[in-house]
Inverse folding.
């Protein structure tokens, strides 16, 4: 009734192909951006930033990256945690060796370094597929974490073996380090998120994204119609690793501040991000965000209800969280293999016709 | 013989024993993969869950006692009995069979005809679910599992081999855990009985038919769903055996489920569809990582066991994607 296509005339191909084809969708999107940039920074406090918003934004970037590789190009990766560690350590090394460089470029450079590492570990994907590739990426996960633990050069020979982010500023505001304030850190992250999401959306709906999807749907057929599997797969690995590296760099420098590689970037993180894109929706930009939001919010919610509300011990709450997350994954795969993003799409289609059934 | 040489032999022997343990887990993977094409990530958690259940039954723990206590404010922990090991093992077998039926009813039935990768992810979900469930039922503290399997080094072997070294050199003999020897025997018995089962029984023949071709098996009247339940139950029992062995070796704790990850490179080496492959792959990985740690480990900082298996598998994959004994992968457009 109020959400409809009628009267929204398109007079050019450009308008016809835009991301938000409906007027209401566009307004909603602009409104969301206004709220995110102009309202949230003024009401955000430390708890919301560190418990919900920062992990959501940063893990959403990693989910975007993994979704490009797994959802769009069909290459399953269990090495996300390892690649995030590459981003984090690259960020640390660049921060400490070039103190004058703006943190924004440091983060982008860390992404570029991770993209190179991702390229190397992507080479086997030309010969192996499916589970075999998943196991091959496990090699990246375990090897990289071990490497950062064992080679002191990576953590600048510090005694604890940890890396901790020194203070870096941008336009006079501290972004990293102990003096960084919640609104500033939030604004820094959301700027990068919006930028990267915009790039991802436009990459995936253009020629490159189509060649990724062709490889995903059937690689031999794609090769026959002229998609070069070497270039396409490696590009997917590079772009995906770039996103994951940026996410790792932000996770370390802006969110946590100090990192012990085995604890933070272990195999559990890889699975968490894989779950995000399964629950959110494989092959969907929106899905990456929904999945990240869902898996960041559910534990916070459960913890609030069970520990603070009912007074149960934290370990029981943690176990129940495992049961619920595991159950949700199976449930989603059975009921809606395309994730929450597909439910959202269906809801919108229904709403277009509402109140009529057809 | 020089002590160095003897040490190397000891490392190889220990590697073989460790490899047997990996093979035990990998065996469960292969069984399920052959029968249903599902790559069961939850195999390691099944081993953990079985071991926890076994300990729980043995010591008479009340299931969900922590949860019940937290909700109702009671403080029940134990029924106050200790069951003999045999009874506890049998009860655990029953639980694993029930588990197989539940998985088929609640999950697999609804995922027929989905892509393999979706099924794989579903088993990751299952793994998380069971991990939480096991901890919720039996508590997450590390448990000691004792079903009467002998443990500790074999003194006889140590004394026997101590005399092998050249005169005048200091050598104290080989250290091999008796538990590992038992595990090897158990694994051999398990493989032989599985082979006999699949060769000479009616159900076993049905299993092989399903592994060969789902549709052809269906058309001669084999019920796929029944076969799946049977296969998951067998895999559950294999997981229990693996869980007992690992649990007796290093205690029943969360790290047990990480063993499952180690079984993945084993499978890659051996091939997903071959039972002998699982055994030989396990042995290669076991020996390889022990030798690498012994020979190269000290030069690059140690703890190479964490990644060696995966990197070996990765290199191996590039040259032979189907594994040593796996079926050749043929793709058609």
């Amino acid at each position: 009734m109020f959400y409809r296509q009628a009267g929204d005339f398109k007079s050019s191909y450009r308008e016809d192909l835009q991301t938000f084809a409906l007027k209401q969708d566009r307004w909603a999107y602009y409104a969301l951006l206004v709220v995110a940039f102009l309202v949230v920074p003024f009401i955000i406090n430390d708890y919301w930033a560190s418990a919900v918003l920062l992990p959501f934004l940063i893990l959403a970037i990693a989910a975007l990256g993994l979704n490009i590789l797994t959802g769009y190009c069909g290459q399953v990766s269990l090495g996300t945690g390892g690649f995030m560690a590459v981003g984090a350590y690259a960020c640390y090394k660049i921060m400490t060796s070039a103190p004058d460089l703006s943190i924004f470029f440091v983060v982008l450079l860390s992404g570029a370094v991770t993209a190179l590492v991702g390229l190397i570990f992507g080479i086997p994907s030309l010969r192996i597929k499916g589970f075999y590739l998943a196991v091959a990426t496990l090699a990246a996960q375990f090897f990289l974490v071990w490497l950062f633990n064992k080679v002191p050069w990576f953590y600048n020979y510090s005694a604890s073996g940890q890396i901790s982010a020194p203070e870096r500023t941008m336009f006079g505001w501290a972004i990293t380090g102990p003096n960084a304030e919640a609104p500033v850190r939030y604004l820094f992250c959301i700027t990068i998120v919006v930028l990267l999401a915009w790039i991802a959306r436009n990459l995936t709906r253009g020629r490159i994204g189509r060649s990724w999807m062709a490889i995903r749907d059937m690689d031999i057929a794609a090769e026959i119609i002229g998609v070069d599997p070497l270039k396409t797969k490696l590009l997917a690995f590079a772009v995906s690793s770039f996103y994951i590296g940026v996410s790792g760099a932000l996770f370390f420098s802006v969110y946590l501040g100090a990192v012990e590689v085995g604890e933070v970037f272990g195999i559990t993180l890889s699975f968490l991000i894989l779950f995000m894109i399964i629950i959110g929706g494989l092959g969907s930009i929106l899905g990456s965000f929904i999945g990240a939001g869902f898996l960041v919010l559910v534990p916070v919610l459960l913890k609030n209800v069970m520990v603070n509300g009912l007074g149960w011990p934290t370990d029981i709450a943690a176990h129940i969280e495992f049961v619920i997350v595991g159950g949700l994954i199976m449930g989603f795969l059975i009921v809606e293999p395309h994730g929450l993003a597909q439910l959202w799409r269906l809801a919108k289609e229904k709403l277009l016709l509402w109140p009529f059934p057809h | 013989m020089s002590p160095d040489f003897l040490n190397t032999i000891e490392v190889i022997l220990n590697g073989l024993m460790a490899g047997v343990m990996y093979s035990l887990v990998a065996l469960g993977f292969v069984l399920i993969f052959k029968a249903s094409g599902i790559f069961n990530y939850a195999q390691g958690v099944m081993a953990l869950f079985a071991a926890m259940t076994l300990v729980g039954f043995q010591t008479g723990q009340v299931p969900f006692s922590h949860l019940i206590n937290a909700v109702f404010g009671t403080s029940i922990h134990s029924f106050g009995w200790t069951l003999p090991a045999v009874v506890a093992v049998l009860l655990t077998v029953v639980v694993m069979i029930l588990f197989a039926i539940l998985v088929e009813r609640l999950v697999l039935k609804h995922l027929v005809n989905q892509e393999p990768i979706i099924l794989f992810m579903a088993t990751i979900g299952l793994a998380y679910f069971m991990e939480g469930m096991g901890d919720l039922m039996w508590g997450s503290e590390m448990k000691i599992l004792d079903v009467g399997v002998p443990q500790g080094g074999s003194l006889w072997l140590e004394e026997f081999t101590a005399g092998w070294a050249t005169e005048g050199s200091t050598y104290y003999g080989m250290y091999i855990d008796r538990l590992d020897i038992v595990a090897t025997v158990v694994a051999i018995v398990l493989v032989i009985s599985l082979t006999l089962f699949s060769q000479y029984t009616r159900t076993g023949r049905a299993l092989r038919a399903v592994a060969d071709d789902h549709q052809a098996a269906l058309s001669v009247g084999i019920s796929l769903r029944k076969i799946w339940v049977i296969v998951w139950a067998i895999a559950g029992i294999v997981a229990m055996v693996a869980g007992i062995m690992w649990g007796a070796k290093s205690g029943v704790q969360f790290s047990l489920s990480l063993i499952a990850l180690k079984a993945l490179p084993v499978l890659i080496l051996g091939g997903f569809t071959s039972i002998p492959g699982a055994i030989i792959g396990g042995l290669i990985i076991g020996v390889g990582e022990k030798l690498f740690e012994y020979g190269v480990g000290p030069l690059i900082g140690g703890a190479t066991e964490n990644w060696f298996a995966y990197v070996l598998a990765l290199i191996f994959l590039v040259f032979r994607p189907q594994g040593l004994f796996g079926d050749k992968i043929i793709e058609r457009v």
